[in-house]
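Possible regression after last week's pipeline update?

I re-ran a chain I had predicted before the update to compare outputs. Posting the input and the new output here so someone can diff against the archived version. Not blocking, just want to make sure nothing changed silently.
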Amino acid sequence: MGQSPSAALDRESSFSHRFGFLSSSSLGSSDGFSDEILANRDFTAEIPDECLAYVFQFLGPGDRNRCSLVCKRWLCVDGWSRYRLSLDAQSEIEASLPSIFMRFDSITKLTLRCSRRSISLNDGALVAISVRCQNLTRLKLRGCREISDKGMSTFAKNSKNLRKLSCGSCTFGAKALNAVLDYCSNLEELSVKRLRGIHDGAEAIGPGTAASSLKTICLKELVNGQSFEPLVVGAKNLKALKIIHCLGDWDRVLQLIGNRNRNGKENLHLNNYNSNGNNDALMEIHLERLQVSDIGLSAISKCAKIENLHIVKTPDCSNYGLVSVAEHCKLLKKLHVDGWRTNRIGDEGLVAVAKHCPNLEELVLVGVNATHLSLGAIASNCSKLERLALCGSGTIGNTEIACIAAKCMALKKLCIKGCPISDIAIEALGSGCPSLVKIKLRKCRGVSCEAGEWLREQRGSLVINMDACEVDGGFEASVSNGGIHEVGVDYPQVVSQVVDRDASTSSNGRLALLRSKFGLFASRNFVACTFRRWSNNEDSFNGNL
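New output (post-update):
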């Protein structure tokens, strides 16, 4: 419209020149397309290999396997553009390894997994893989019981670009890991789980040349995890340390880590180095099912840059250790505490967190008997709190939830499980927590299905998941970006579930009954009194802090 016929003709001619394979002359007469030509023509022939490889990146492994069967070209493009590969690492696969890695010659991430009932590939196969995969940066081994220290040592010599190693249920031990730490100088992540070669009396592991590059160490279910002490202490740029269900006393290891960070800060101050030279880089510590006490918690409090701390099922830890952490780790953003119902961590430790950690964004309390004293302090002082999970506590009731609803203005996700709350708490949430987008209620017997429907009616945009109602559906999303990990059989993953609001509507009679019920509460002015009481006591809470 508004263009000359010659301009339109030029544009059409340019389009035909650029996409000649779609021109009418190549497809048939102007009266109609030739079915025979259309059936035999490959319209992807004009697409460059790089573009085709880019499209393949959006497909899953199954779809890519099917695409590789279309033609030889697609088979070739899929081979050189695939960087991840997962293999069933049984012994029978050894004969096929040359052809597999001749086709997939660009692999950087490899997973070798073998079931318990099968015999895994051996040292020779692993060495052959290391020779053919020169670009390998990540390796995951699961159940490869035929790989020995000798095979892993040779693999490490051939895989000097390795950055990430994860091994579980294997039989090699300290010699293999020391070889990896010596030869793979760029190693950044090391995860070890159930290594049978790591036993009592095993030689020390680390630090090796990889100590300067390691950023994450994860140790799970080890009989003698203390053999990693030289590595954990010597990794001066370590940012994340996870020790889960490992036997032995871990207070000594944590003390060495704390002393290393303290000495690093003293040397930094004396030598007047800039901030880039600070060795105090540890930002995440995860302690689960360990023999660790307040001595260990006091030691890690010397790591002042910690932002993420998990204290899960450590029965020897108490308020004293948590107070020490709160007083020194003021940058704390995520705190997970599973008190295992030992009643050793409670209001005293949480009040210290509220006082010294104003940047707290995520708080998970499992089996911790917190009351309105600590929750009110956290709600008042931690203005950035966005994610809160309260599970398995007999002291968290309507009063505590009303306090949270009145003061947690930034709260977005809330999970309450196994707490003695009732419909009164749901009424408080109906008008509180203005930023709330997701709420999950589990095993709260005092909360009725009608209360959930009322809350959904009051706040239409709120995503609600209640086990009292069988109308919930959709996908599940984690409470936090990193997710709340499962910490035991009695504590499933804290999630929020998307609910179809149209499917959750109920009869008008039940809603009318609920309205009358809440009307009775309103006449008693229960919630209003509760909010007023906490508002009046807010100054006293702040004064105590």
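Follow-up from reviewer: compared with the archived run. Confidence is low (pLDDT under 50) at residues 1-5, 11-31, 266-279, 470-545. Marking as no regression found.
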